[in-house]
Amino acid sequence: ETSSPPTSSISLPKFDVICATDCLFITWLHEHLIAALEELLNEDHGVAIFAFAIHAAYSKAKDVWAFVDKVKAYHRQGDSSPVFDVETLPSVQLTPPKKGMPDEQGLVHTLRVTKL
Q1: How many angstroms separate the CA atoms of 98 and 106, rounded?
Q2: How far apart are the first and last CA of the chain?
Q3: pTM, entire model
Q4: What is the share, in percent, of the chain residues with pLDDT greater than 70?
Q5: Which helix (H) or strand (E) is 64 found in, with range?
Q6: Nearest CA to 50 among 70, 75, 76?
Q7: Residue range 58-65: average pLDDT?
Q8: Using alpha carbons only, what angle is made at residue 89 by residues 13 and 55, rounded to the nearest 5 degrees?
Q9: Suppose 25 and one of 43, 50, 58, 81 were both cysteines; which one would form an S-S bond, judging by CB atoms 3.0 to 4.6 Å apart?
Q10: Dihedral over Cα of 88, 67, 49, 115: its sign
Q11: Could you give the CA distance from residue 13 to residue 39 in angstroms, rounded to a whole number?
Q12: Of 50, 57, 62, 60, the residue nearest 23 (C-alpha)
């Protein structure tokens, strides 16, 4: 179960939409990324879109996909209500970026994370 860190006294701008690509392979920063979403997304159903491919040289698929469960489990301190809804959108197979790369490196996955 993941809970939010204490809030800072700095007032940051809020965004209706945040787009992030190719960052979920940095699995050791998932919790920080989720906390940033809570801080930066508009309270009125802000949305974050994540597009990514699995790069086995950097992270295992199961560790990257664990981001979904971490987002679903995230809650504010002292409140067990979920903060986000997560939807996995259809994946799209593109040509891998370099000749000889495995097809999975061209398989683009997309997540939509909505603030509740």
Answers
A1: 9
A2: 18
A3: 0.85
A4: 92
A5: helix 61-73
A6: 70
A7: 95
A8: 85
A9: 58
A10: positive
A11: 9
A12: 50
